[in-house]
Amino acid sequence: MIRETTMPDSNASNVAILGGGNIGQALARGWVASWKCDPGQITITRRHAEALEPLAEQGFSVTTDNVEAVRRAETILVAVQPQQLLALLEEIRDVLDPDRHVVISVVSDVRIADIRGHLGGSIPVARAMPNTAIGICESMTCLAGEAGSEALNQAASLFDAVGKTLVIDEELMTSATATCACGIAFFLRSIRAASQGGIEIGFHPEEAMLLAAQTAKGAASLLLDAESHPEAEIDRVTTPRGCTIAGLNEMEHQGFSSAMIKGILVSAKKAAGLFEET
Predict the structure, then answer these.
(1) Range of the domain at 205
(2) Which of 189, 221, 262, 269 lies 20 to 30 angstroms, CA to CA, from 116?
(3) Last residue of a domain, which of 135, 170, 205?
(4) Torsion of the alpha carbons at 49, 51, 57 and 62, rounded to the nearest 10
């Protein structure tokens, strides 16, 4: 089921984000923007902490010490690259307390059973696959974990605050990586293409980008707000021998839909091998 964004939670636990890359930083900003957490409740780690200085200036706790970050928190968000995961789990396993800590992983292609196995088997673990729009509370995040578990409930509480969530079977998490995490880049590229088309027909670049981005936002809102189907909304703007159907047909002749589908399939295949490549 799809979960709507929740109201702020004044009782949120302290969170350690282990891995202050793009997703880790976006998560931190999103939770503060949604009033889910105060900056002081979030500790972010990175091997080169100077990259997190802007967050430190905003009141976040930043450090290179993963163990210390775990000791400060109750919820542990693992946001490192797959090739860094095993070393991180080995580093923190002895300070994790199954009666105190919950681990949520946003690492692609690593199953809950594998994470728990490396942590000793008793730590509550869930998985989440957000995208970078989490920083502005507009992420689509897929969640997986044992139904009704503390880990899944905590993941839902955190990620509900920064967009929409969908609880899925863990077997679909690789597909979620391609559709949601990679997918945001696919839609951004389509917006970029639309803006380039706008320039070709006379708009200045900044005007073309505004027109393309706002039109894309409106199209998505039509589907989400009215729970409509794309073809139903397309039918509303296509007329016999009209300019819309002419443009759509040309795009299909050039392989628009096929290219998008193939891109998602290739990304899913690549995502399925990320941990194996480490």
Answers:
(1) 183-271
(2) 269
(3) 170
(4) -30
